[in-house]
Fold this sequence. Notes:
The chain is of the alpha+beta class. The chain has helices spanning 3-12, 14-53, 60-70, 80-93, 112-122, 131-136, 190-193; strands spanning 105-106, 109-110, 138-141, 149-153, 160-168, 171-174, 183-186, 196-202.
Amino acid sequence: MGPVLTKAAVALGMDAVMRWVMGLVAGLVVICLLIVLIVVGTFATVVGSRHAGSAPAAESPSVVRIFVASAPGPQVGLSPDIALGNRIIELARAWMGVPYVFGGCSSTGVDCSCLVQKVYGAAGIHLPRVAVDQFNATVPVSDPQPGDLVFFANTYEPGISHVGIYIGDGLQINAPTTGQVVSVAPVFTGHWGSHYAGARRVRA
């Protein structure tokens, strides 16, 4: 024994020294076990995160399929006015090429106000038959949007005498006049621009 242990053994007796040594060893064993547990836990966490980060690529398509299945249709998320405007234009385009017939109201011949009445009717909205009555049944707007109505005055008679369906970019779909067909024409320039009387919208 070293001088310290010899003196301790003499002062306290051999049993006390042994108890002190055993307590020290037990403390060291507990500390070592704690260190081992911490190292093992850290290793398990690292290995687990690697497995999570390297998930099989085959799982990705299921996420894509769920997204695609729940993707909204083209009208979802649009305001009612925009959705209606798009629908009106779609219905109006189906009449392209139909001959203009004064007083006509069928797919073999149609005039301007009947075109409007038929298109809006197909969208579930009733409008009067004559352009001036359609003018009076709608509300004015300063900035026409697709699907709004554009009116013209003093064409073949005084007052409101022609109507078209605004499709944006300064253009309309209308049934113009005898010898022509339902087609796209400028609203604010040319012949129609010189007779432009304003845009109006169907009351909500």
